[in-house]
Design goal:
With 73 residues, the protein is mostly helical. It is 66% helix and 0% strand. Helix 3 packs across helix 4. The termini are far apart.
Length: 73
């Protein structure tokens, strides 16, 4: 995977920033352990998967997912 502005943002995400994202993903049905390191790994992996699938639009896709109703993925 190429290191660019998107992947740098994703891979550089500090674990305290991942907690709220992990919490929202849990609300949407993701099974994420509550340990900080696990949350960080899960969120970064999830974002990288979005980037691989949607390219530069990954952030818009993530925002769309976050706006979904609880329990509907």
């Amino acid at each position: 995977m190429e290191l660019n502005k998107h992947t740098t943002l994703i891979l550089g995400m500090p674990n305290f920033s991942c907690a709220s994202i992990a919490h929202r993903l849990r609300d949407l049905g993701h099974d994420i352990p509550k340990k900080a390191e696990s949350q960080q790994a899960y969120v970064i992996n999830w974002m990288l998967e979005l980037y691989e699938k949607h390219g530069d639009e990954w952030g818009d896709v993530a925002d769309s997912i976050f706006r979904q109703e609880q329990g509907h993925e």
